[in-house]
Write a structure and sequence with these properties.
Elements (H helix, E strand, L loop, with lengths): L2 H21 L3 E4 L4 H10 L3 E6 L11 E4 H13 L2 E6 L10 H10 L5 E4 L1 H9 L17 H6 L1 E2 L2 E2 L7 E8 H6 L8 H13 L14 H14 L3 H9 L5 H17 L5 H4 L9 H5 L5 E5 L16 E4 L10 E3 L2 E4 L6 H11 L2 H11 L17 H8 L4 E2 L10 H12 L4 H16 L1
Parallel strand pairs: 2-4, 2-5, 11-13
Antiparallel strand pairs: 1-3, 5-12, 6-7, 8-9, 8-10, 8-11
Length: 438
């Protein structure tokens, strides 16, 4: 594989994380004054904080205007500090062939904005370059869950914080499992046995897949012990300095995926052509396939899996430690020498306050980064939620790992889907690790 081709594909994979974050900014209803009054209020505010992200700002249009949950928290910050937050968006400008990551890297390095929504790889790169402010100075940072700190700390500095924790899991049709007297699987062996039973009973493809999320199986198998065995810090340091190889961790997951593909439990050729949810979703909702994979918010969204005609459960991926949630995180970061640094700190601290996160989390029904904010989840998500509450998880994105995980593993899985051997994938992973160490 050519180096540039791999890099471009990897960035495309990581753009999926930003997309998830944007999709989860669902609409809600709040009481507003007239549009004219809001425009006048904006004109009266002289202090401006520039926010760069992939989403446009909702435009108020009268009483009971629908605004996204994110906009509500921004509006509260504007009111509290009597300033304006100006949205500068990736989609609003013609960047031609540049990815969102390319553009954010360029804009941060040139101090073009104050506040950014960042993907894990850019958090990692910009944090290592010292271009992001250490957010541990925020009052709200005291309330963060440990998983947020672990995922977004670079060289001892907390350089990004999200408004939600994105958890990936297996969406299963419990009715189909009960039809064939199957328990929901916990281990790789149990998962394979369930697939075998489904296949033998005429279900052509037990696992509906797409070209983005099969890597979650790999992460669950690879890092179950690392993140849940009490030695994460030491093992990550050994990986970062080359004492240990990522391939030794990830090989079992790739072998597991290869077995799923070889036995026809996953249709790799078809999955390679599918976008997330759009491809495999119809068969899952039509009860033609009993298992798919998606992120937490898809269970709350009617346009995704929020209204199935069967009993749905969302569980963790199979691992040596049982059903394992896989967590990925985007995050908001402040340019270290931002032009409007003090006001930007005020804005971010406001939208990450427990008060604002309660509003955001309740509207979107997601897991908050604050340990003080709890939102009741729907019954389908309870199995996954229980594991997260027990602090059982693996990270699919970790800025503390020098080799970026989410995008690189996604592309290697795609290589496997298109015919590469496990050994070839591991050789490429070793090459990437060596390149990173240089």
């Amino acid at each position: 594989m050519r180096k540039n081709q791999h890099r471009n594909q990897s960035k495309a994979a990581k753009l999926c994380l930003i997309t998830i974050a944007v999709i989860s900014l669902t609409s809600c209803m709040v009481r507003q004054d007239s549009l004219q009054n809001l425009i006048m209020d904006e004109e009266m505010k002289t202090d401006v904080v520039n926010l760069f992200g992939p989403m446009e700002k909702s435009i108020p249009n009268g009483v009971n205007t629908a605004r996204s949950a994110f906009d509500m928290t921004i509006f509260a910050a504007e009111e509290k500090w009597n300033l304006s937050v100006e949205y500068r968006t990736y989609t609003a400008e013609n960047y031609q062939e540049k990815t969102y990551d390319d553009v954010t890297l360029d804009r941060v390095r040139n101090r073009m904005d104050d506040l950014y929504l960042l993907n894990p790889d850019t958090i990692q790169i910009l944090g290592a370059e010292g271009r992001l402010l250490d957010l541990s100075i925020l009052e709200s940072a005291k309330n963060l869950r440990d998983v947020v700190k672990m995922a977004n700390t670079v060289d001892g500095k907390l350089v990004a914080i999200p408004q939600e924790i994105v958890v990936h899991g297996l969406f299963v049709n419990q009715d189909m499992f009960e039809q064939y007297n199957l328990e929901l699987p916990h281990t790789p062996e149990e998962f394979l046995e369930c697939c075998r039973v489904f296949k033998e009973n005429g279900i052509e493809t037990p696992v509906g897949a797409n070209r983005w999320w099969l890597e979650n199986f790999v992460f669950a198998l690879a890092y179950a012990d690392l993140y849940n065995g009490g030695t994460a810090e030491e093992e990550i340091e050994a990986l970062n300095c080359g004492e240990k190889k990522y391939s030794d961790y990830l090989r079992p997951g790739f072998m597991f995926l290869k077995e799923l593909m070889d036995k026809g439990y996953v249709d790799a050729e078809t999955a390679y052509t599918y976008e997330a949810i759009e491809g495999e979703g119809p068969d899952f909702l039509a009860q033609k396939t009993p298992i798919v994979m998606a992120y937490w918010g898809a269970a709350n969204t009617v346009t995704a899996y929020g209204a199935p005609d069967f009993t749905m459960k969302v569980i963790g991926f199979p691992s040596s430690r049982g059903q394992m949630p896989v967590i990925s995180m985007t995050g908001y970061g402040i340019v270290a020498d931002a032009e409007n640094r003090e006001n930007t700190i005020k804005v971010l601290d406001s939208i990450l306050s427990d008060e604002s996160l309660q509003v955001y989390s309740e509207k979107n029904r997601v897991i908050s980064p604050s340990k003080n904010v709890e939102v009741e989840c729907i019954p389908a998500l309870q199995p996954l939620n229980n594991r997260v509450k027990e602090n059982i998880y693996v990270l699919g994105s970790n800025a503390g790992m020098k080799l970026e995980q989410w995008g690189n593993v996604c592309i290697l899985v795609r290589n496997l889907m298109s015919g590469a051997t496990v050994d070839e994938c591991m050789e490429e992973l070793d090459r990437l690790q060596e390149e990173t160490l240089k």
